[in-house]
Design a protein that fits this description.
Elements lengths: L2 H23 L17 H15 L5 H4 L5 H14 L1
Helix pairs in contact: 1-2, 1-4
Length: 86
């Protein structure tokens, strides 16, 4: 895959994850690097985000994957890593 296609795919992934998190938290805008819990998220809502991510991307994301750092950027990085292995 070319660098520009990979960058576009990553941007699309970031926008999708951003939308899932915003919708789950009821926020209009979020910082991609902001911690999910610091933005008002809790473990129940986090599991909903993870479930939605897995529905869309089929990457087997778990709560343990994001327990130390739960942000849009973390989720995007995990998705991209798992795509490159597949």
């Amino acid at each position: 895959m070319s660098n520009s296609r990979a960058a576009t795919r990553t941007d699309d992934t970031r926008q999708t994850i951003n939308a899932i998190v915003r919708q789950s938290l009821g926020l209009e805008k979020i910082d991609h690097a902001a911690d999910f819990f610091a933005m008002g998220g809790d473990s129940i809502t986090g599991m909903g985000v993870i479930s939605r991510v897995n529905e869309i991307f089929s990457v087997g994301l778990t709560f343990e994957d994001v327990a130390d750092s739960f942000s849009v950027e973390t989720v995007v990085r995990i998705i991209e890593e798992r795509r490159s292995v597949a």
